[in-house]
Amino acid sequence: MPMWNIVADENMPLVEELFSTLGSEQGRNNNQIKRLAGRHISRKDLADADILLVRSITSVNRQLLEETSVKFVGSATIGTDHVDTKYLAANDIKFSSAPGCNAQGVAEYVLTSIAYWAELRDRDLSEVTVGIIGAGNVGSRVIKVLERLGIRCLVNDPPLEDSGDARHFVSLDRIQQCDVVTCHVPFTRSGQYATYHLVDEEFLESMPNNSLLINSARGAVLDNKAAYRVKQAGKNIDYILDVWEGEPEVNVELMAKTLIATPHIAGYSQEGKIRGTYQLYQAVNQWLGLENTIPLNTLLPQAPKWHWSGLLSGLYQSLKPYYDIQADDKRMRQVKTDIRNKFDHLRKTYPQRLEFLDTL
After folding, report:
1. Annotation marks residue 247 as catalytic
2. Binding site residues for substrate, as ranges?
3. Which pLDDT tens digit goes with each residue over 85-111?
4. Is 168 a catalytic residue?
5. 43 classed as catalytic
């Protein structure tokens, strides 16, 4: 008989390697692991499950968990807005997420974005100031990378500032005046530190001309409709967007106005996913009172060493062999074009029945 019944998102790596022998003696595979598509995990699938391991596309709430045997829920992601943590706490279901698991991947995405923009717009990065909103796991990694490269940073994070963090923080007004602004905050709709539409029309209008806004945090941190209006009105500002308000829907009008558009892949690296799974492995062990017997460094892929000349002017060309942001942008735009072409074909074939397509 299995010791633990585990249901896991099929896109989580190394679940079998980390969880199949969990709690067993002499490394025996005593646990039963069921792999399912994250979007289709149902209450029926969890009837006899003890542990549920998900990513961000599975909504974990009363509807999913009521009358199941789930005792532990883990999300191998930074964000937790897809999880009803209050319901879990009220029903004595342990919860853990994986903050910081993809921080390095997102930092590399942001660095590549800035380098690409600087080369395209002929900007000297030694004279550029980057404003960073949010200095948590991801924001701190971005700060560290930029400072090592000699790129000036200003940082805004009121929650950390109020908590006594010793770093130097500036107001959001100061951030608005930076050449580049990059967002790294969680998504919250209410409260003193709400981030819903934190970057709004007024913020964008206040940014200098020939500036850049990067959003790789959460889509609704940026007011997408306002971003489109500002650009449509003639504001000379570039957008590099990896996240979108209302995902999985994408504002295609705004997308057409972006310098780079990608489908929420900034932190979607193999290393980031492995770290996410491993953090849940650690959390389950702690919950069960067990030791971590598998070291993380035996699981991570070996990355090629980055060779850089030390010249900021050639930063993008140095990064391109490791990550080509233009390729991801091209793929996303091609998907949009393919969908539009299919709609056009349907419209011509069934003109009376598919009038609604004209509203898309």
Report:
1. yes
2. 56, 77, 268
3. 999 999 999 999 999 898 999 999 999
4. no
5. no
